[in-house]
Write a structure and sequence with these properties.
- The chain has about 270 residues and is mostly helical.
- The chain has one domain.
- Helices cover about 75% and strands about 0% of the residues.
- The two termini are about 25 Å apart.
């Protein structure tokens, strides 16, 4: 609670750092924040072609929406996954990229991580708005009542990702190879999460004990919840909601604990 209070007392610094990230993200770029919409569409085109065309992957029919396109099925999962990956990657380098500031100024260093999370959350919000509009107008999906729930789910995903980012940002100061190791970890994590394939595919291909291990992956529940809301137009079940709430809380507490344990020597090691 002292750490939380310390960050709350530094809310003006936190907002200033977040504004800095927002201003400099697409500075001198011709398209500017339009890239926030083009990036997920480009990813959709690549994975849609590889898995939907070359491998002939098909998507289940939306239970209440009636959606059938593999593109919609993929986009509802890849947008939240990309947000999670972005928070991890920019959070990992939040301390090392601001080494001069960390060495010379005394301030709550976790604000460097949280400012990046706020920046990524704004970009994620833009992508979710675009996706929701497309699903409502182009696909005709009845997701309008679930949009507030999607917003809450996005905040919980930000909390979950922030906890991991806090731990990574401090560990990266001490272990320089973590940047390369985490890139591999994210690739493996991506493919053990049903982003580009339906969960039923895993159920039919792996034994029960392996399925139980895969169900412990928190991103399975986050991706599944976004698909429930945006693709199937229905509320996630209570077990999935419970897993998301627990994962978010545990991630933030553990990540912040690791950060607090390592933060006293950050100015010396960075």
């Amino acid at each position: 609670m002292q750490s939380v209070q310390r960050v709350l007392n530094a809310h003006e610094l936190l907002w200033s750092l977040a504004q800095r990230e927002l201003r400099t993200k697409y500075r001198r770029s011709f398209l500017g924040w339009t890239w926030s919409m083009l990036n997920p569409l480009a990813t959709l085109a690549i994975y849609g072609f590889v898995f939907g065309v070359l491998f002939g992957a098909s998507a289940p029919v939306g239970e209440r929406s009636g959606l059938t396109g593999f593109a919609w099925f993929l986009l509802c999962a890849i947008v939240p996954w990309n947000f999670f990956a972005v928070v991890n990657n920019i959070g990992l380098s939040a301390i090392t990229n601001n080494a001069a500031l960390v060495r010379r100024v005394a301030f709550p260093r976790e604000t460097l991580v949280f400012s990046n999370v706020i920046f990524a959350l704004v970009q994620f919000g833009i992508e979710l708005v675009v996706l929701s509009v497309v699903l409502l107008i182009v696909a005709g999906s009845p997701i309008l009542p679930w949009i507030p729930v999607v917003a809450v789910l996005g905040i919980l995903l930000a909390v979950f990702a922030a906890g991991i980012a806090l731990a990574l940002s401090a560990l990266a100061v001490y272990f320089k190879d973590l940047t390369y190791l985490w890139a591999i970890t994210l690739q493996v994590w991506f493919f053990i999460t049903p982003v580009v394939y339906p969960p039923s595919l895993v159920e039919n291909q792996v034994p029960e004990w392996a399925q139980n291990i895969l169900r412990m992956n928190p991103m399975v529940h986050f991706v599944g919840a976004f698909r429930d809301l945006l693709y199937h137009a229905q509320m996630p079940n209570i077990q999935r909601i419970g897993a998301i709430l627990l994962s978010s809380f545990v991630s933030l507490v553990l990540g912040w604990s690791v950060f607090n344990r390592l933060s006293p020597r950050l100015p010396e090691e960075v």
